[in-house]
Amino acid sequence: MRIEVRAVGRMKSGPERDLFDEYLKRAQGQGRALGFTAIEEREIDPRGKADKRAETASLIQDLPVGAQIVALDERGKDLTSREIAGKIESWRDQGIRDLVFLIGGADGLDRDQLSPSTHYIAFGRATWPHKMVRAMIGEQIYRSIALMAGAPYHRD
Q1: How far from 116 is each of 41, 50, 126, CA to CA, in Å?
Q2: What is the DSSP secondary-structure string of 70-90?
Q3: Is 135 helix (H, G, I), strand (E, B) or coil?
Q4: Count of domains for the chain
Q5: Which of 35, 74, 86, 101 has a CA that sits 20 to 30 A from residue 122's CA?
């Protein structure tokens, strides 16, 4: 399975960038043995995009056929780390080849453009800056892979 995080905006260097990159690097290293062939990021430049409809269209452009989409959305379901890991593991075991996480711009995502099979998850009820959301999804991807590998990273 290939995992991709698509986000509106360019994240400049800084602690959030370093954290996100570190978690993706860890996930890639540990994930190979579990069937995760690539874990990547794609940034969508918001310049010239007037609204969330245009931003969402840019995010979903060129999606791999059959990809499982997970939209990070404040109105999504609040899942535990084990539940997130369980979903990723289940999709992998079902033969889903591509898993794409979407992070919209400041106004969120245009749900009308997303497939009915899109899963929506939230990181609690609080509103988080986009840089933090990227770091958090990077960490959750790594945590999910660590859980699947039986590594001691996650503690209940």
Answers
A1: 23, 25, 25
A2: EEEEEEEEE--HHHHHHHHHH
A3: helix
A4: 1
A5: 35
